[in-house]
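Hi V.,

Quick status before I head out on leave. The structure for the redesign project is tokenized and pasted below; the design run finished overnight.
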């Protein structure tokens, strides 16, 4: 009787590395498409988390944000977006990045505070994860990564991804998520700049509208003054303005240009104000 024994440990390790690479690349591909379809920071981050958790091994993905400001002395960490089958893990979870707070000594607090990635290949043995170990066990979370997201100003952020099995984050997967967080940072910045631009345009439009109303309010008494000085041509300015606007619209002028045309037509006889009344209203011929 012959028997052949083969050690397949190395083969299994190789297959596992390939699987983790495939999981990470699939998550990155889905997240990359979400980046191009961004609308607001919230929907953008939601789409990123949903794309990551589309692979079943990634049970939970969420984006944490923090900001050092006077009204946040506890240095609270907020959940900006989250997705996955283990969302229950986040229910009632209070996190901080305050160094002297026990809740701030975990992987997320360290990452937010120092900007250094935190890799937990097994949540049941990772040293600083002790306060959340039982919660993670009940939720079915066994490994995770916390990678900083570059943000502007006093804000800080991190991408947190949990898996339902240990050792789900090989170096290549971590590298993929690091590239992803860079794209998330760029995407958030682009969205914020676009929102600022839209807000500035709306502000300019409101100012222009206010100026138009102020100009109209200023023109009305001028027209009234001209008509009082020359009752013979009462209504002439308004009729000229109506005809000019009709011609301008036929020519395809913009609304802004038409408004300027209307004002110009209404005051085209403004010189009458400085003409002496005895000349302006003289019944006979002028010499």
């Amino acid at each position: 009787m012959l028997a052949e024994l083969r050690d397949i440990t190395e083969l299994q390790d190789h297959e596992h590395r390939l699987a983790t690479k495939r999981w990470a690349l699939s998550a990155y591909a889905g997240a990359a498409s979400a980046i191009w379809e961004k609308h607001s920071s919230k929907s953008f981050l939601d789409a990123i988390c949903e794309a990551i958790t589309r692979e079943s091994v990634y049970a939970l993905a969420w984006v944490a944000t923090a900001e050092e400001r006077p009204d946040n002395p506890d240095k609270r960490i907020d959940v900006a977006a989250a997705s996955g089958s283990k969302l229950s893990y986040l229910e009632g979870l209070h996190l901080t990045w305050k160094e002297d707070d026990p809740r701030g000594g975990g992987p997320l607090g360290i990452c937010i505070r120092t900007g250094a990635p935190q890799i937990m290949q097994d949540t049941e043995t990772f040293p600083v994860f002790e306060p959340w170990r039982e919660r993670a066990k009940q939720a079915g979370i066994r490994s995770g990564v916390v990678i900083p997201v570059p943000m502007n100003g006093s804000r800080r952020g991190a991408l947190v991804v949990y898996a339902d099995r240990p050792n789900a984050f090989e170096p290549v997967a971590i590298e993929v998520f690091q590239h992803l967080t860079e794209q998330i940072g760029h995407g958030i910045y682009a969205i914020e700049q676009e929102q600022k631009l839209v807000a500035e345009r709306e502000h300019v439009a409101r100012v222009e509208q206010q100026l138009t109303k102020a100009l109209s309010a200023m023109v009305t008494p001028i027209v009234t003054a001209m008509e009082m000085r020359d009752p013979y041509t009462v209504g002439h300015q308004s009729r000229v303005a109506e005809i000019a606007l009709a011609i301008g619209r036929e020519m395809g002028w913009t609304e802004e240009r038409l408004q300027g045309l209307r004002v110009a037509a209404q005051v085209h006889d403004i010189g009458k104000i400085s003409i002496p009344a005895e000349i302006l209203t003289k019944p006979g011929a002028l010499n």
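Above is the designed sequence. The chain is about 50% helix and 15% strand.

G. will cover questions while I'm gone.

Best,
W.
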